[in-house]
Amino acid sequence: MRSNSYRIVSYKIKHGYDVSGFLLCYRSLLQRAIDIIWSNIKWVRKWEKKYYIVEREGKKIRRYYRVRRLIPVVPRTKEFKRQLRNELMNCWNYAPHYVDSAIKVAYSILKSWRRNYVKGERRREKPVVKRLFVRVKETLYVYRDGRIRVTIAPRKHYLEFDLNRSWFKNRVKELELGELILTRHELIITFRKPIKEKYAERIGWDLNLFSLDGFSPKHGWVRVDLSKLYHIHRVHEVKRKKAQRVASRKFSVKERASRHGERERNRAKDFVHKLTTELTSKFPNTVHGFEDLSKNNMYGHSRKHNRDVGKQNWKQIVQYMSYKGRVELIDPKNSSSTCPACGGEMVKLRKGQVVRCVKCGLELDRQLCGAINIYLRMCGFPQSPSTFYRAVIRKMIPRWRMQMRALGGVATNGGEGDDMPSMNSRRWLSLMNPKAYIGLQKPT
Description:
- The protein has nine helices and 18 strands.
- Helix 1 crosses helix 3, helix 4 runs antiparallel to helix 5 and helix 5 (254-282) packs across helix 7.
- Helices cover 36% and strands 27% of the residues.
- The protein is of the alpha+beta class.
């Protein structure tokens, strides 16, 4: 089966086995593998091109310069991996295949570290494993008649799990079982779900501070209000600040202050799960294009702006959508400041809510402009008046006529008046009912 012909779904079941000693041994094995690979990394000096911005006469000019950086080269030869496995096997008393699993995870951790290091987001520091988990390969368990038997030590120690009593047994009857992840109290089970449907539609999503704006010729302007998600982070920020102020004087309150972070993550995670589930059910067989945003490049402004950016769950939304549907990451550069019709520069009006092209005079909502540009980049269309008319305007004319008959007209000045979804009568998102806040916005 090809890697792009299925997607991975995962479920959790709780267990009562005492595996703390085994998890500690695996963590020390994994850390030792990272230490050995780290000590054999070769650091090569390479020239890199960087720039800084200078403002002159109201214009921002880039000044480029070159620097020499140490770039790591991770050893990946068969001889090195064979020596690494033999060295790790000397102090391992469990099944030998866990050594192969630890080596695979160690290379994955170092690959992630190297990618972030090259971007400038990580320091030249060795990764340290803190979590207790074991990645169980497919050669370390047997799955028969709805039961999983995991081998810890051959002919000595086994763990058995019964999936016939699980709530998801009907969902995974015909699915192929993948790797397992064993933790102290849970077993995470992954399944390979074949992709049979064809993705015929596309939606481009513009990620903003308080909304998620999408565009497709079939559905028009889709606006998702994220102000409630921001409200969750803001409420727990205030509560955590008060608790920390008291905890600085009273040590017994310190544990209570640490709970707010966990509650905040759980509430935000629950919100994003329900949101992405509703989006995939409302737009089936659809490719969702999201901006490939990085928060590290957005900091450096006012304290309020930096804190607002830190409260966003953009990466989490994209991550959850990636295994519930199909996702494409699009370059977000100048998505809201480029005219989708002619490619000219857009200037901000009405405190930045509306933008106007200085070249062709096109005026529309700033967030809708970003969504249209992302949709055009998904499809690979160039920015030209003929393409804009053929891919956007001509397909939207029937929908505009339908909305004019139903709503009595269409706003022509970039979302003047009510900018909330028409189907959301309460004007706010209910955390337990995300259907009420996903609606179709009137096009402008």
